[in-house]
Amino acid sequence: MTEVTPARLAPMPDDWQRALAVVAHPDDLEYGCSAAIASWTDAGREVAYVLATRGEAGIDTLAPAECGPLREREQRASAAVVGVSTVEFLDHRDGVIEYGTALRRDIAAAVRRHRPELVITLNHRDTWDGTLWNTPDHVAVGRAVLDAAGDAGNRWIFPELTERGLEPWNGVRWVAVAGSGTPTHAVDATDGLDRAVRSLLEHRTYIEALTDQDPEEYARGLLTENARETGRRFGDRPAVAFELFPR
């Protein structure tokens, strides 16, 4: 049988200034694409984070009331490592996020507030590359982001946002999905990879609950291998992959 060679990944567009990353939990971006975000902020681009939850149900040994504030602090510290100072939380409940108009409205409001050209989210499909089952939170948020990028530009879908002073924003040019099993584009991770590792390490409490492996060994090994594997389709340079949806 002839082995099929995966298609080469195209470079991500770089003719933009503002991006908004919207994901379900603290650490989603650090596992998915923070090396790319580091390279973008280095180039003077603005990136803001919006998280649907505070990750309060993510650590079995910590009650949500204790876990949520801790993971929020870890997320803010993690974002700072890659040059992101704006981190917002929508306060949906971790583990039981519901796809629907309430979630779309909250994300559309964030898009109107930040007025990005590029919106980033995480894999919205049922599986990771057709093998591992995805979580309902990732699916709900990723799908809602793709929809809300359009909702934000239509004044008649959520007119209450206009009443709150959030004027429609129809300037989203792309939605980029990290962790997709069918990526189309990539960003060189060479300069951002070390900071991506340090950014993931800021989620130390979560990592220590997740694995007995040394946290730095775990983070560096995981991100380096992912970047190297993606780089095989991007000129053999360490890379972060995205599935890009033009709007």
TrEMBL record:
Q: Which SUPFAM superfamilies match?
A: LmbE-like
What's the short name of a Pfam family annotated to this entry?
PIG-L
Look up keyword Transferase and say if it applies.
no
* Transmembrane residue ranges: none
Which InterPro entries does its entry note? GlcNAc_PI_deacetylase-related, LmbE-like_dom_sf
Sorted UniProt keywords:
Zinc
Say if the entry is tagged with keyword Zinc.
yes
By its UniProt entry, which PANTHER family does this protein fall under? LMBE FAMILY PROTEIN, N-ACETYLGLUCOSAMINYL-PHOSPHATIDYLINOSITOL DE-N-ACETYLASE-RELATED
Which protein, by its recorded name, is this?
PIG-L family deacetylase
